[in-house]
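thread: overnight batch results

M.L. [08:02]
morning all. the overnight job finished for the chain we discussed friday. pasting input first so we're all looking at the same thing
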Amino acid sequence: MLDLTMSQVLTDPLIRQMLRADGVKLGDFAMLLEKAAAERGHRFPSRSAPSNANHGPDAEVRAN
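M.L. [08:03]
and the structure it wrote out:
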């Protein structure tokens, strides 16, 4: 089983669809992942999510 990178998780269409269905903003989910990783001793760059408008850490999840 392969682990996804944080960038892959944040751009995965199925994950984005589930976030949208649950009303979770992409930026909030990215912060949750970073916090969980920090608690486990992993570090990420300050902004590990893609930075364009549709996929940035503060973008809302939208249907494709």
